Amino acid sequence: MRYIVVVRDPRDVFMSFWNHYSEMTDAYFARANGPGLVGPPVPRCPEDIHDLWARWITEGWFPWESEGWPHSGNLYHTASWWRCRQLENVLFVHFADLLADLPAEIARVAGFLDVPLTEGRLVEAARALTFDAVRRDAAAAAPMPQESAEFVWKDGLGTFFFRGTNGRWRGVLTEDELALYALAKQRCLSPEAAAYLEGGRAAWAPPVAVA
């Protein structure tokens, strides 16, 4: 088995999470909290983005988390894989690196999976996998059919494929809220892991893989 660990700056993850969580439909919550529910009910998204941040960055949903309420515990997820980063069957891929140089990251993934890739195929894949191209062909690119997406989100696949950009947290999160993020990093991540999570491969040179 080979594992590709895709990570993103937690502040960007939060902005994407807010978009998804705040746009969930009444039908989704009715089914999620209906017959067969295991554990506590799925809570509704707070109406204010700052109220969600205060809980998401300081509370976990599971006993072993200290952030990520009510789901999408990004820091815990990264930390859990970071200890495996030297294994030869684990590859870290960063969202920022995909945006910065998509062909290079496609080539890295193809090499990791031993998938032959000609220059022509690489160009073709990079053209088809830009965010704009994926959003344009959302029905084929999404991990669920359109009707399922419309059941979960008010704008269906338009909510799932929203912006695909980084840095939208700037001008939204306050200095006090960013201080909560700094504390969460200290709780959950080593300095090296935190640097990679924020800066991608430019901030961290992956070690040589070992068997």
Task: Give a quick set of tags describing it.
mainly alpha; 13 helices; globular; Rossmann fold; 211 residues; two-stranded parallel sheet
SSE layout and pairing:
Layout lengths: L2 E5 L2 H13 L3 H7 L16 H8 L17 H9 L7 E5 H6 L1 H11 L6 H10 L2 H6 L1 H4 L4 H7 L4 H4 L14 H14 L2 H9 L12
Parallel strand pairs: 1-2
Q: Could you explain the architecture of this structure?
A:
The chain is mainly alpha-helical and 211 residues long. The protein has 13 helices and two strands, in the order βααααβααααααααα. The chain has helices at residues 10-22, 26-32, 49-56, 74-82, 95-100, 102-112, 119-128, 131-136, 138-141, 146-152, 157-160, 175-188, 191-199; strands at 3-7, 90-94. A two-stranded parallel sheet has the order 1-2. α6 (102-112) crosses α7 (119-128). It is globular. The model has no long low-confidence stretch (mean pLDDT 86).
How many domains, as an integer? 1
- State the secondary-structure class: mainly alpha
Number of helices: 13
Form type: globular
What percent of the residues sit in helical stretches (DSSP H or I)?
Answer: 40-55%
> Sheet with the most strands?
2 strands, parallel
Beta-strand level of the residues, as a percent range? under 5%
Proper CATH architecture: 3-Layer(aba) Sandwich
Low-pLDDT stretches are none
Kindly state the number of beta strands. Answer: 2
What is the level 1 CATH name?
Answer: Alpha Beta
Kindly report the CATH topology.
Rossmann fold
Order of helices and strands: EHHHHEHHHHHHHHH
Mean pLDDT: 86
Over all CA atoms, what is the radius of gyration? 18 Å
Give the strand line-up of the largest sheet: 1-2
Distance between the termini: 13 Å
Assigned CATH superfamily? P-loop containing nucleotide triphosphate hydrolases
